[in-house]
Amino acid sequence: MGFLSTIFGFFGFGFGILIGLVVGYFFFIYFQPTHVKDPEIKPLTEQDPVTLQKMLPEIPIWIKNPDSDRVDWLNKFIEYLWPYLDKAICKTAKNIAMPIIAEQIPKYKIDGVEFETLTLGSLPPTFQGMKVYVTDEKELIMEPSVKWAGNPNVTISVKAFGLKATVQVLDLQVFLAPRITLKPLVPTFPCFANIYVSLMEKPHVDFGLKVVGADLMSIPGIYRFVQELIKDQVANMYLWPKTLEVQILDPTKAMKRPVGILHVKVLRAMKLKKKDLLGASDPYVKLKMTGDKMPSEKTTVKYKNLNPEWNEEFNLSVKDTESQVLEINVYDWGQVRKHDKMGMNVIPLKAISPEEPKEFTLGLLKNMDPNDVHNVKSHGHIVVELTYKPFKEGELAKGFEEKHKVQKAPEGTPTGGGLLVVIVHEAEDVVGKYHTNPYVRVTLTGQEKKTKRIKRNRDPRWEEEFGFTLEEPPTNQRLHVEVISTSSRSLLHQKESLGYIDITLADVVLNKRINEKYHLIDSKNGRIQIELQWRTS
């Protein structure tokens, strides 16, 4: 019986398992629980406030803020470069830190401090989004959202009194919302002189800290104390409006600020060639400094004279004595026809010694091409006297630091009056019906100034400066600014207006400086940026 009961018990157990599996499968297939429902998917706009609050920390900033842009390309770029950036950043940080540590350790009777391990890990930081601000000043403002949940390993060994202790930083998390400003923008690579960094909110910093192998951050109270200490210290130094300034370029060289004045005295010309069919020529001289956007200086016209004497003096600003050249062009004035070029020559500024007047007698050439056969013929001579007067170092630095401060008017400005400086920066969406070759005409009290003409450009940039000397403050006057397009190809429509604006000058007299963009009248979407300065003596 014992053997039979064992056999039946075995089969009974086996049949029980089989029957249990069949019954369980049947219930699983044909009976569904009523308390489990399919997940319901809703758009963010239909979520309740509590759910949204739980989800917001995980939502990218470019979704929460429509004015923030996605920068996936930048994250991909950093991801590919991270192994190399890791080594470069660590090497730079080590080179900066070690001299500072070597200078400080004698004060604390420490024998030595060394980096045993220094790596930022394999996980790069990510940019959740970036906001870019557009201003009327020469600057670029960016506000990225940076998150870095990295796995760095920084191990520092400290030796003192014959003992050695190690400090290890692990599992770093940093969440930042910095504002990065690149200014001023300059025409020298990398196109900005300084970087200004400030934090728009307190940063979140979390990390593990091991001292002699023990996790210091696991001690009750230490973790929160260190967290708050780091936040407060960083906020005190860099929370907006406080900034960290990093100089990239020498500002005076990058901005190409004037370093001196070139005094030019045009004395006379000899043996000029006749350009008029019925008599002599009507010569005048144009002076232009290369690399300068200021208009050319012109002498008076000497009518019917091939050996004219001017004895006229001019002052030109100098930005780089090593590379700039003074261009001297002689033209034959024509009342109706185009002014004919009679000859030219150049004088490199590096050929002039400071504070020493030097007279030059130059042979006039057709152009500066040494292989041009026309330069073999004589086109006459011109005599000029040059004196270069450099600024003092103190005056140059002070002038750059106060570049936003309105300068004083030059000597000779009428008492009670002043100098109105008009800087034409750029225009946007200026489109002509027949052609778009824009230039700007600025008119005040009968005086007219013009910028250069830029061909086939609806978003031109001039960056040209003009001055109007006035007997009294223009509190009741208006500055007329008009954008005009000209074309010699269109016989019926050689000139057309692309828009204009009349600017009341009372504000600039009161505020000394205004830099704004104005909507052009008689233009669909055109705008122009004008900077005005009122300088008094």
From TrEMBL:
Domain SMP-LTD, first and last residues per copy: 67-249
Listed InterPro entries: C2_dom (IPR000008), C2_domain_sf (IPR035892), SMP_LBD (IPR031468), Synaptotagmin_plant (IPR045050), Synaptotagmin_SMP (IPR039010)
Keywords per UniProt: Calcium, Lipid transport, Lipid-binding, Membrane, Metal-binding, Repeat, Transmembrane, Transmembrane helix, Transport
GO cellular component: endoplasmic reticulum; membrane
Gene Ontology biological-process entries: lipid transport
Gene Ontology molecular function terms on file: lipid binding; metal ion binding
Residue ranges constituting the C2 domain according to the UniProt record: 240-362, 402-518
Cofactors required: Ca(2+)
Localisation: Membrane
Transmembrane segments: 7-31
Membrane topology: Single-pass membrane protein
Superkingdom of this protein's organism: Eukaryota
Alphabetical list of PROSITE patterns matching this protein: C2 (PS50004), SMP (PS51847)
Pfam families attached to this UniProt entry: C2 (PF00168), SMP_LBD (PF17047)
Gene3D superfamilies per UniProt: C2 domain
Family named by the database record: Belongs to the synaptotagmin family.
Protein name: Putative C2 domain, synaptotagmin-like mitochondrial-lipid-binding domain-containing protein
